[in-house]
Amino acid sequence: MPANSLQDRCEYFENVIVMRILLKILLRISIVIIALYLIICGLLYTFQERFIFFPQKLSSDYRFNFPQTFEEIDIRTPDNTNLNGVIFKSESSKGLIFYLHGNGGAINSWGNVAKAYTDLNYDVFILDYRGYGKSEGKIENQTQIYEDIQFAYDLLKQRYIEENIIVLGYSIGTGLASKIASDNNPKLLILQAPYYSMIDMMRHSYSFAPTFILKYRFNNLENIKKCQMPIVIFHGNNDEVIYYGSSLKLKDQLSSKDTLITLQGQRHNGMTYNKDYIKALEKIIE
Asked: Could you give the angle at which helices 142-156 and 173-182 cross, rounded to 10 degrees?
């Protein structure tokens, strides 16, 4: 056998061995990557409440100290969980703002927004979700939080005529507000910095994660299609948390009675104190 032929065969077998080793290494790396991905998805599914909700817990004997008249109320749910809420009183009430706050904090801080609405002669009710503030329990699933809010809404309807109730949701509260409005008949629905849906938010911000693991699918698009009352959306075009395009997509689904108001330069936080927001709100409520 010629020497060069033997050398070629040796080089061939060496290349085959190297390729097999490389394939084994790549296979092992792929298995590790897939395993890590599945572990991450499993953790996101199991602990997603910790990634969505950021409650501030208050002791049961905590005393609110707001510079306006308010009434603290406790709501006992059908499963015997106590939910805490506060009604802020205006001097001459025209009705009620049923306010559903964002995913962080508690009433002790969210209560500061109330004056913007009581100055317009509307009482304001703010509910702390399970695990927030002085409310007992913890959020466990989407149905539970919907039922809690509906239960609170039904109790407030015993105090206020529904045609004088405005449902308002901020940030994550928009999905809750649009749901309660779609299942009832308030005077008006106001959404501050809404998302298109939580699935859309997940695709936008966490595209690596499969959407089927999401247990909380708060869907503003689906809900507003069922709403019979006028809808007003406010969104800042510099929102760094819920992208402004969410409201632009929702706008395409609004009817002629509905409105999108863009707040120029507004970021995610502090919308309630925006002068353009207050001016627009005054006209809408009047």
From this structure: 60
Strand, coil or helix: 270: coil
CA distances from 14 to 2, 3, 102, 284 (A): 19, 17, 63, 79
Which string of b and e fits 80-114 if b means at least 16 CB within 10 Å? eeebbbbbbebeeeebbbbbbbbbebbbbebbebb
Which positions ≥6 away from 161 have C-beta within 8 Å?
95
Q: What are the pLDDT digits (tens) for 139-195?
A: 999 999 999 999 999 999 999 999 999 999 999 999 999 999 999 999 999 999 999
The CATH number of the structural domain formed by 55-285 is: 3.40.50.1820
- Give tens-digit pLDDT for 63-116: 999 999 999 999 999 999 999 999 999 999 999 999 999 999 999 999 999 999
> What are the boundaries of each domain within the chain?
3-46, 55-285
Give the separation between CA 123 and CA 125, rounded to whole angstroms.
7
- How far is the C-alpha of 241 from the C-alpha of 271, rounded, in Å? 13
Question: Using the 8-state DSSP alphabet, how is residue 254 labeled?
Answer: -
Banded pLDDT at 206 (limits 50, 70, 90): confident
| C-alpha angle 58-64-68 in degrees, rounded to nearest 5 | 150
Question: Of the candidates 102, 76, 101, which has an alpha carbon nearest to the alpha carbon of residue 88?
Answer: 101
Whole-prediction pTM: 0.86
